[in-house]
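so im writing up the methods section and need the Flavin reductase record in one place, dumping it here so i stop losing it
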Amino acid sequence: MFYKPEDGHGLPHNPFNAIVTPRPIGWISTRGTDGQDNIAPYSFFNAVAYVPPQVMFASTSAKDDRDGTKDSVANIRDTGFFCVNIVEYAMRDVMNQTSGPWDKDVDEFELAGIERAECETIPCARVANAPASLECKLTQLIKLPGETNYAVFGEVTGVHMRDDCLVDGMFDVTRFNPLTRLGYRDYAVIRDLFSLKRPGE
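--- predicted struct ---
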């Protein structure tokens, strides 16, 4: 099958998200200028550079109370800071609870019963027991084609790693099993690893 997105795919559901998989989930926590904390998951997320370390995520929908975007992007636009919390399999239901279209005045940490801690380098809350959290300062906020599409780029200014996830000096994902996003309503969990050496190594 071949289709042009501009012409439609003719399938019951859009296959695009199912093609680009698995995708890591960035559980983005922010704080508004009013001090209100927010946290929401984004599956258009990844690391993009080593030196300095940088990450990005994209937001593709909007809420009526946020001027063409969602709480996360609106807060970052106002403050210039955000934190990426890594989602483990054990927190799948809690993460999912924070994905709802809650009012901007709703504190998703309280709503989902998430223990929070203060970040070290930015004025923002993080998930206290996440396997890892990346404190970030905004470097670029880019309006993408499409009515509500934004890409957010940030430089990592602080890194938290849970002690039980460090094994022999390495961050071991098998200790917490990262949750990943597939297409439709599907997710996957990472449990099995293998290594490959690059040519010449």
